[in-house]
């Protein structure tokens, strides 16, 4: 809950109060912080005693945590795109019918 609150405050500040001239610096700072976060996660995993033995099961679990949300997202986006997006050829047909 704390993470969500901090993220919402950051979005509000970035949207309303953050000067345009610092956005490039902010983008670079985000990359540095992301690299630092990934490094710290690697150190945490590497310091586990049975990490190499657990790697096989962790890999399968991680793959399932990736596959299930990504698959459902793909299906949802495909369905919504088919329902709400129209192609250029359909727009041209609609405009030619309106011209008649």
Overview of this structure, please?
- The protein has 100 residues and is mainly α.
- The chain folds into two domains: 47 residues; 48 residues.
- The protein is 85% helix and 0% strand.
- The N and C termini lie far apart (58 Å).
Concise overview:
The chain has 100 residues and is mainly α. Helices cover 85% and strands 0% of the residues.
Largest sheet, if any?
none
Give the averaged pLDDT, no decimals.
86
Tell me, briefly, the overall form.
flat
Q: Which structural class best describes the helix and strand composition?
A: mainly alpha
Give a quick set of tags describing it.
flat, mainly alpha, 100 residues, 2 domains, single chain
Chart the SSEs and their pairings.
Layout (H helix, E strand, L loop, with lengths): L1 H15 L6 H24 L4 H34 L3 H12 L1
